[in-house]
Structures are given as C-alpha cells and as structure tokens.
C-alpha cells in the first residue's frame, strides 16, 4: 500500500523581493563568444541613468515555482530562508496569499532577506542583480529530509552558500520522491565535475540554452566542440542526457524548447503573446509548469511542454515573476479541445 503524501511538490531555493526598473538609455554590445547569441547590456560609466518606471514585486526561484505550482491546483510547501526584517515578513505573507505551506520556511534572524534589482530594457528583456542575503544560509538537515519524503516531488532551484552539501542531502531522499532541478548560476559556474555526480538522481533537468552550452563546455571531453555542435539543441540534449537525468529540457527563448527522454525528442514552439511586458521568472514558470504537467497528465511530455509554453507566455504578459501565471481553471480551457494542444 503506497504512502499518501502530504505535498505534491516542495520547492527548494531562494525567495526575494524584487525592484524592477525600466530604462531606455543603454547600449547592446554584440558578444561573439556567446554561442546562444546573448549581447552585453552596457551603460556609460560615471553617468546617471534615468528610470522611466519602477515596481516592487516578489521573486526567487523557490518562491516563484511554489506560486506557479500552487495556482495550478497542487499542494505545495516552500523550503526557503528569509531574514528577520520587514521584507521577510512581506515574502512570507505573499506565500501565504497563494496558499503555500510555509512550515518548512526558515527565518534567519541575524540577516536580511534576499532582494534583486532588475533592469528591464525597451525590448522588455532583463538583467537581474541579486543579493542573496539569508538565501545563502539555506542548510538542509536530516530532519528536513524526513519532511521532503512527505512529497511526491521536489523542485530544486538556484542555491548559493554550500550548495553541494545541500544537494548531497537532497539526493538522499527516498526513491519515491522525484527530483526536478533547475540549477542556478552558481551550479553552472562550478562546472561539469561538481555538477555531474548528482544527475543520476534527477528526474527532470531544465535549463536555458546558454546554461546548457556552458555546462557542456565544462566537460573536458567536449571543451573543444565547434560552434556548430554547440548551437544544436539535439547535441546538447544528448550530452546532458548521457550524464543520467531521466528527462532533459532546454529552453531557447523565442525559438521554443526541446526535450529528450532517451527515446524520443520533443519540440515545443513558443506561444506568441502580443503583449510582452517582462521576462523575469520565465524559466521558473516554464520549468515548474513542465514538472506539474508530468504529474497532472500521467507523464505526457508533449502535454507538459504545451502547458509550460502557455504559462511562460502568460507570465511574460505581466510585470514580475509571479503575476500572470495560469491557474487550475485555465488548464481546463487549454485542454478542453483534445486536438488543440497537439498543434
């Protein structure tokens, strides 16, 4: 007889308050060394940059994914750290508003809560400057693992601090718990040797194409691969899948997303949205929606990708990482006509 779990998902990682600033006076500089085609965003040094408008919202990988999953009708717990300041209280109140269980959250009384300054350009793409603060003090214990075992899934997002020690704990969960991992900048920077050892325990690995290229290049066997090799999502999927995760998903901005489960390649085109307000939280919305889709649709990867694409398209239409997300009633509309999602 299978054990009834308390949670559908527990999300692990950061929570922040975000200050988003729209600016017009900047320069985009081509970066030929970036195989994904991302340019540099630059400002004239020593000058004052005008902000046309600004907003305060909430973010952080674990908080964003928790909100997304909860809105889709799932039972969610948020394993986050927050500071002993007013910002921390606002972060917790926001999670409560979305019916997220915060009994797993840890208050770091001697530190402030994490926050980000997000610069948004005229094309509504963004660059985020993040101060991790209390987020860097996330420390998973054996007692926490016993709570993690009460969930069907863990969704692990960006971690700083001693992230390897925390990841060792995470992969020690009961085999009945599936782990989805959307690694952050620190994990990608630490490279192949540090990263690879956890992948055999990962059910779903999601990342954007730029991150996929970086992690493949950090493997000595692939360090000298040509540009033509690296721009192929299929090549990237093959390399990363060989390291152990059950399903690999690579997003590629306006070019959509690709997935591979070792047997079949899947492609999901982007869902066009006439109003593109802000790309903040796009990866969190896509990754968590994909994992939610696997659970909701009996591991139908094509359906899960379709849900993820729609939620990414929806969140991009609103300011902030948690506004514009789909809810459970939207799913019924999306999949009401069986043939619609197959197009």
Notes on the protein architecture:
With 343 residues, the protein is an alpha/beta fold. The chain is built from 11 helices and 16 strands. It has helices at residues 61-71, 86-97, 142-148, 163-170, 185-195, 209-217, 227-230, 233-241, 282-296, 301-315, 328-334, and strands spanning 7-12, 16-23, 27-29, 40-42, 51-59, 76-79, 81-83, 106-108, 114-120, 126-131, 151-156, 178-181, 204-208, 247-251, 257-260, 265-268. It has an 8-stranded mixed beta sheet, sandwiched between helices. A 4-stranded mixed beta sheet has the order 5-2-9-10. A two-stranded antiparallel ribbon has the order 3-4. A hairpin with a 5-residue loop joins strand 9 (114-120) and strand 10.
């Amino acid at each position: 007889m299978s054990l009834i779990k308390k949670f559908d998902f527990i999300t692990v990682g950061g929570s922040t308050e975000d200050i988003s600033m729209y600016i017009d006076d900047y320069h985009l500089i081509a970066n030929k060394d970036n195989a994904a085609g991302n340019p540099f965003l630059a400002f004239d040094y020593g000058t004052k940059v005008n902000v046309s408008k600004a907003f305060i919202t909430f973010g952080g990988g674990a908080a964003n994914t928790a909100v997304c999953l909860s809105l889709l009708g799932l039972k969610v717990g948020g394993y986050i750290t927050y500071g002993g300041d007013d910002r921390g209280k606002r972060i917790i109140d926001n999670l409560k508003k979305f019916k997220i269980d915060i009994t797993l959250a840890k208050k770091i009384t001697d530190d402030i809560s994490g926050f980000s300054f997000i610069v948004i350009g005229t094309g509504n793409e963004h660059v985020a400057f993040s101060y991790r603060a209390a987020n860097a003090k996330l420390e998973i214990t054996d007692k926490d693992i016993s709570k993690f075992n009460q969930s069907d899934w863990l969704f692990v997002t960006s971690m700083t601090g001693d992230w390897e020690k925390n990841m060792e704990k995470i992969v020690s969960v009961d085999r009945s718990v599936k782990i989805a991992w959307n690694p952050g900048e620190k994990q990608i920077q630490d490279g192949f040797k540090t990263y690879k050892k956890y992948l055999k325990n990962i059910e779903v690995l999601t990342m954007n194409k730029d991150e996929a290229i970086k992690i493949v290049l950090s493997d000595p066997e692939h360090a000298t691969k040509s540009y033509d090799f690296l721009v192929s999502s299929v090549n990237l999927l093959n390399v990363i899948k060989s390291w152990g995760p059950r399903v690999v998903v690579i997003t590629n901005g306006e070019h959509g997303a690709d997935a591979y489960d070792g047997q079949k390649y899947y492609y999901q085109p982007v869902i066009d949205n006439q109003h593109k307000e802000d790309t903040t939280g796009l990866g969190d919305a896509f990754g968590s929606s994909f994992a939610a889709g696997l659970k909701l649709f009996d591991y139908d990867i094509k359906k899960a990708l379709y849900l993820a694409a729609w939620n990414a398209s929806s969140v991009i239409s609103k300011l902030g990482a948690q506004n514009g997300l789909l809810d459970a009633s939207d799913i019924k509309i999306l999949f009401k006509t069986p043939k619609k999602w197959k197009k």
